[in-house]
């Protein structure tokens, strides 16, 4: 495991370094260079923060490089869109306020995600836990006192930010919709298990912190059984 994580880290370092080079040398596509750097920092950071604050579960998957086929396809489609539009309609890729908004979302989004991972510590796991481990405690402080799913919120902002940075209109809409759908379903199943693990304590937490952090996503809310109205 150690040598393979070293290889992945080296590869991510190369991607980040190449990104810096592209940014400095190829001014016409500097946003692509910043994108490469952002992706390498994001994936390296996933492994690093897990290794630092939840070392018992760290493994090669912690880089999230092989998150899912859908993730890889979405990345490849965004690369294709960027280079196709850069070639066919370079005017679309003109640097504007959108690019800078994308940069802000990338930095803020990744910062929120990594801070959430640090805050949750050993309770954070890249895989949703269907059984409760002894050291899994309910986290309600820090960012978790503001929204219930700060790491998903951060990743959502980061992902949308990458498409703004690349000025990819098609993927911007696609990412905003499909990633939203992914997190809305994920949050419901995650909260189903959290309710099983922590029961009333999680129910109270949902009341104290009503926002999930992902827009228009409510999470796993209890089904309210109506008492018939007294006539
Ligand atoms: C990938 S982490 C995501 C955590 C959270 N959804 C977020 O966005 O910050 C998934 C794991 O975190 C755990 N988890 C989520 N919210 C938690 C909380 N408030 N306290 C403790 N564990 C939590 C879940 O049980 C799951 O195993």
Automatic annotation (TrEMBL):
| InterPro entries for this protein | ICMT_MeTrfase, PPMT_MeTrfase
Q: How does it sit in the membrane?
A: Multi-pass membrane protein
Top-rank taxon of the source lineage equals: Eukaryota
Q: Give one Pfam family.
A: ICMT
Q: Look up keyword S-adenosyl-L-methionine and say if it applies.
A: yes
- Catalytic activity of the protein: [protein]-C-terminal S-[(2E,6E)-farnesyl]-L-cysteine + S-adenosyl-L-methionine = [protein]-C-terminal S-[(2E,6E)-farnesyl]-L-cysteine methyl ester + S-adenosyl-L-homocysteine
Has the keyword Membrane been applied to this entry? Answer: yes
Under Gene3D superfamilies, the record lists:
1.20.120.1630
Which EC number(s) are documented for this chain?
2.1.1.100
Main location class: endoplasmic reticulum
Listed GO MF terms: protein C-terminal S-isoprenylcysteine carboxyl O-methyltransferase activity
Q: Which compartments is it annotated to reside in?
A: Endoplasmic reticulum membrane; Membrane
Looking at the UniProt entry, the stretches that span the membrane are 7-26, 95-112, 155-180
Q: Which UniProt keywords apply?
A: Endoplasmic reticulum, Membrane, Methyltransferase, S-adenosyl-L-methionine, Transferase, Transmembrane, Transmembrane helix
For this record, the Gene Ontology CC terms, alphabetical, are: endoplasmic reticulum membrane
PANTHER family per record? PROTEIN-S ISOPRENYLCYSTEINE O-METHYLTRANSFERASE, PROTEIN-S-ISOPRENYLCYSTEINE O-METHYLTRANSFERASE
Family membership, please give it: Belongs to the class VI-like SAM-binding methyltransferase superfamily. Isoprenylcysteine carboxyl methyltransferase family.
What protein name does the entry list? Protein-S-isoprenylcysteine O-methyltransferase
């Amino acid at each position: 495991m150690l040598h393979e994580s070293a290889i992945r880290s080296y590869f991510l370092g190369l991607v980040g370094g190449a990104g810096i080079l592209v940014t400095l040398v190829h001014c016409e596509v500097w946003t692509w260079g910043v994108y490469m750097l952002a992706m390498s920092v994001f994936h390296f950071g996933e492994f690093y923060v897990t290794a630092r604050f939840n070392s018992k579960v760290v493994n090669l998957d912690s880089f999230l490089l092989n998150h899912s086929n859908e993730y890889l396809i979405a990345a490849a489609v965004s690369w294709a869109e960027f280079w196709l539009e850069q070639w066919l309609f370079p005017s679309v890729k003109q640097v504007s306020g959108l690019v800078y908004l994308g940069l802000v979302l990338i930095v803020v989004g990744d910062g929120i995600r990594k801070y959430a991972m640090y805050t949750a510590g050993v309770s954070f796991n890249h895989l949703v836990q269907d059984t409760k481990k002894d050291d899994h405690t309910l986290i309600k402080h820090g960012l978790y006192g503001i929204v219930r799913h700060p790491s998903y919120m951060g990743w959502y902002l980061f992902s949308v930010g990458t498409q703004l940075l690349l000025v990819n209109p098609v993927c911007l809409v696609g990412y905003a919709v499909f990633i939203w759908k992914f997190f809305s379903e994920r949050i419901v199943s995650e909260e189903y298990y959290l309710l099983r693990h922590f029961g009333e304590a999680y129910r109270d937490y949902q009341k104290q912190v009503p926002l999930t952090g992902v827009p228009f996503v409510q999470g796993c809310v209890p089904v309210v059984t109506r008492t018939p109205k007294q006539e």
